[in-house]
Write a structure and sequence with these properties.
By secondary structure, this protein is of the alpha+beta class. The protein has a domain at about 45-145: Immunoglobulin-like (Sandwich). Helix content is about 20%, strand content about 35%. The chain has helices at about 10-30, 130-135; strands at about 45-50, 55, 65, 70-75, 80, 85-90, 95-100, 110-120, 140-145. The strands form two sheets. Strands 2-9-8-4-5 form a five-stranded mixed β-sheet. A four-stranded antiparallel β-sheet has the order 1-3-7-6, with no helix packed on it. Strand 6 and strand 7 (about 95-100) form a beta hairpin. The longest helix is centred in the N-terminal third of the chain and has 24 residues, at about 10-30. The protein starts with 8 loop residues before the first helix and ends with a strand. The relative contact order is 0.18.
């Protein structure tokens, strides 16, 4: 079996060039792909959230936030501010934590999407209202899913 010289070598060279460019584009696109959740830019006062933005959560899972220790805050879930007597606050660490359960406004999360809002203010103010009056109240909202 012998290889014959193509009748139109220019056409073969163009097709081979196009194929090589297409293969390189696919390789570069594959390397540039980022897997996982989108990189979220939170305000610098927020050190962590649980669950993170768009995470899956268990029906009895905690909703918590950690702010810098010189701040305090409150959490609202699905438009409802969680009463202070139903959250655990650790001021020295800046942690505000709510766990649903018996005797609480939310006993368990229903399946599906939920929204949370963290409001925080300098710990020199006793309440969110006092901080809001001095324009020191900030907020950040995120969503999570219960599976």
């Amino acid at each position: 079996m012998s290889l014959a010289r193509p009748k139109n070598p220019l056409r073969v060279a163009i097709v081979v060039g196009i194929v090589l460019v297409a293969v390189n584009v696919i390789i570069i696109a594959g390397r540039a792909q980022v897997n996982g959740p989108a990189n979220v830019q939170r305000p610098s006062e927020i050190l962590s959230l649980q669950p993170n933005e768009s995470d899956e959560q268990l029906p009895q899972g905690d909703i918590s936030a950690q702010v810098r220790p010189d701040f305090t805050g409150q959490i609202a879930i699905d438009g409802h501010v969680i009463p202070q007597d139903q959250v655990t606050v650790t001021p020295s660490l800046g942690i505000i934590d709510f766990q649903p359960g018996p005797g609480k406004d939310i006993t368990a999360f229903t399946k599906g999407p939920h929204g949370a809002v963290l409001e925080w203010w300098p710990d020199t103010f006793v309440t969110a209202e006092a901080a809001a009056a001095k324009h020191e109240l900030r907020n950040y909202s995120w969503s999570f899913n219960v599976g």
